[in-house]
Amino acid sequence: MTERTDGSIGEYPAGDLGDRPGVPVPYKVPPTTPYYGPVAPRTNTLAIVALVTGFCCSIAAVITGHIAIGQIRRTGEAGKGMAIAGLVLGYVSIGFTALLLVTLVFFTAAMGAFVTAVAGATSSVTSSESATSSEEATGQTGAAYFDDGFLMVGTGVTVVDLYIDPMCPYCGQFDIANGDTLAALVDDGTITLRLHSLTFLDQASQGTEYSTRASAALTCEAAINPESTLDYLAALFANQPAEGTTGLSDDELTALSGGSGSIADCVTGEQYHAWSQQNTDDALTGPIPGAELSSIQGTPTVLIDGSQYSGPIDDPQALTDAILGVTG
């Protein structure tokens, strides 16, 4: 390399190197800093965020994606593809979520309508069955006087009302002691016996509603085989279950019948359940027609021409004397 007289470095003027005009100086001053080629633009941070959140948070992906694209346009940063990808993922996720919510709303509405329809149909059937039972339990059938709320045997002048519950142990004791006496007074025309079989001890039969089932079965017997009404009552108490048990089954209640007509369909069809329960409500709330009592407070309760018998429940002679008006 040749240095000129003025201290600069460059081409020699023509003639300096002989007869070769304009020969370049073979060396130049190297650059002061290294050269690494063109620098790649920086990737926009929000574009990366948009892409990542597109997989987990659609709303955040859409928001950051739009912001990232705006910044990229202004600054020339890289990452536009990632921002667009995040937007696409975000919008697809939002659309899918919206579709899922709409489907869920329609499904819930449809299920609600279906449940309402089923409940309405069930209620309609139940109401229809109850109405049918209520319509059937009117007037008189055999020894059952449905409008008056009792079973009646005998035609005597003295009226004896007997309130019992098939699961009541004291009622069982009363019937065992006095059942034959009352039957004899019915047969000889001394008394008219009106039976009120109550159901308030349903709670003592482990959910089987034994008192209702037994009272209804007694009503079935009175309606179908009126001549066997007192025999069936005696059979109920002779086979009385203990309180706190499930009681007799419907088949066992049917088997107690000694009449010529079958009570099976009447018993299993629960024909007089509602009637028996209504009689119980009427007795417990009152008033009691033609009686000195305002309501029935317990069982057994015996009314003789409306007056309450207060004698011993296991002394048939005391009961007979009270009925005949004789002081023992």
Automatic annotation (TrEMBL):
The chain crosses the membrane at residues 46-69, 81-107. Signal peptide: none annotated. Residues 46-100 form the DUF4190 domain. It holds the Pfam family Thioredoxin_4. Gene3D superfamilies: Glutaredoxin. It comes from the Bacteria. Keywords: Membrane, Transmembrane, Transmembrane helix. Residues 159-315 form the Thioredoxin-like fold domain. InterPro entries: DUF4190, Thioredoxin-like_fold, Thioredoxin-like_sf. Residues 1-23 are annotated as: Disordered. This is DUF4190 domain-containing protein.
